[in-house]
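Chapter summary example.
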Amino acid sequence: MIQRIQTIYLLISAIFSGGLIFIFHLWTTENDAPVFAKDNMTYFLMFLGSALLSLISIFKYKKRQTQFVLGRLNIILNFILLGLFVYQLLISPGESQISEKGVGIFIPIFSIVFLVLANKAIKKDEDLVKSVDRLR
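The structure predicted for these 136 residues follows.
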C-alpha cells in the first residue's frame, strides 16, 4: 500500500515541513537579515514535528485509521504553527522586529492542503475496504 496516492501527498507534506524551511526564510528583520525557522527553536521543532508525523503516517499504511488520526494531528499542528506566525506578524509594529514577510510563512498552508488531500485518499481507501467486507 505504500504506492498509494496518499503516500505521495504525505511525502510532499514532509518535504515542505522538513526541507523547505532551510531554503525559504520566514521574514527579514529591520537590518535586512533573513530569519529562518532554525533560528527560532519553537518554530523549528514544530516544523520538524510535522515532517516526522508525515513520515510516520506513511509507514502506518496497514492501519488506515491510525494513519488518518496522525494526519489530523498533523493538520492541527500546522494550524497552531500558522496561528503563531499570524500572532507574530500582527503584534504592534513598535514591538516587532519584522520588516518584511518571507515565503516560509506560507509553508504550513501548503502542508495543510496536502495533508487534507492525503486524508481524503485514506478515507476513500477505508470506505473501499469496508464495502468489500460487506460483500463477503
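To summarize the output: Strands lie at 27-29, 34-35, 98-101.
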